[in-house]
DNA sequence: GGAATAACTTACTTTTTTGTAAGTGCAATC
DNA sequence: GATTGCACTTACAAAAAAGTAAGTTATTCC
């Protein structure tokens, strides 16, 4: 088997840099069906600390994956949602979630 | 928008538990075209320490994702490859790598 | 007007992950 | 028989990620 140029390496690493860590994929998962308030996300992701949620959202925002919208009429209402670009992540999310589900079933059987 | 049961949460977390971290997806990426020796992987993944490579391979082995085969005829030849079960990860790997590639292009343009 | 809720921020600690560097045993090659 | 390459192992250190807890500002709700 010939030694391929390690080209894919940089691509996988790029993804990891943007989506890696304990929380980001989880946050994105819960945004995939539409905008969520900060407090909603907190409830949807058991165990996450407010600081972590904030921090990760800020990073996703700066990477232009997530939008932050403040509603001026009803103050202290902030919603996070995918940017159009961010939606390109959904095809990554799905197989990943599916695999987790299948793997869970498997280890339950064993 | 109704608050979904946070079911996907556990699935995403399961995947993260098995495939998370700096190196595992990268290692698997380089196994997707067939078996590789320890020394080959070391070359294919620039910057990885031997200790890390060993450690991650051991974990993938214990999770039954990767096979370790020792060739007795030619000693000190050890090959790592996907188990049949491990191959189920390939559909996760591809979109992830594709997204990284697209994202790289995007940030180069910006 | 007092309490509660929302969306944060900050200082600090702990834990986890990753890295460094040196060393082992064994076989093949010079 | 000395050196080299391979597949590891170990002790230790550094860095990165995550967590805790308290506080801030402003706004509804009673």
Biggest interface, which chains? A-B, 46 and 45 residues
- CATH class of chain A, named Mainly Alpha
> How many structural domains are formed by the residues of chain A?
1
Order of helices and strands of chain A: HHEHHEEH
Beta-strand percent range of chain A: 5-15%
- Shape estimate of chain A: globular
Oligomer: homodimer
Structural Rg of chain A: 17 Å
Task: Give the beta-strand count of chain A.
Answer: 3
- Cα distance, first to last residue of chain A? 34 Å
CATH topology of chain A: the name is Arc Repressor Mutant, subunit A
What does this entry look like structurally?
Two copies of one chain form a homodimer. Chain A contains five helices and three strands. The first copy, chain A, is globular, with a radius of gyration of 17 Å. Chain A is mainly alpha-helical and 110 residues long. The longest helix of chain A has 20 residues, at 90-109. Chain A has a single domain (21-109), classed as Winged helix-like DNA-binding domain superfamily/Winged helix DNA-binding domain (Arc Repressor Mutant, subunit A), CATH 1.10.10. The interface between A and B is large, with 46 and 45 residues. The first copy, chain A, binds a DNA duplex (30 and 30 nucleotides) through α4.
List the helices and strands and how they pair.
2 copies of one chain form a homodimer.
Chain A (H helix, E strand, L loop, with lengths): L6 H13 L4 H8 L4 E2 H7 L5 H13 L3 E5 L7 E5 L7 H20 L1
Antiparallel strand pairs in A: 1-3, 2-3
The first copy, chain A, binds a DNA duplex (30 and 30 nucleotides) through α4.
């Amino acid at each position: 088997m010939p030694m391929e140029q390690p080209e894919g390496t940089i691509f996988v690493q790029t993804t990891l840099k943007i989506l890696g860590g304990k929380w980001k994929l989880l946050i994105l998962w819960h945004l995939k069906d539409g905008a969520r308030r900060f407090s909603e996300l907190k409830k949807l992701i058991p165990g996450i600390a407010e600081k972590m949620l904030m921090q990760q959202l800020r990073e996703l925002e700066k990477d232009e994956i997530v939008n932050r919208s403040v509603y001026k009429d009803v103050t202290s209402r902030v919603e996070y949602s995918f940017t159009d670009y961010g939606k390109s992540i959904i095809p990554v999310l799905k197989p990943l979630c599916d695999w987790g589900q299948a793997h869970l079933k498997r280890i339950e059987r064993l």
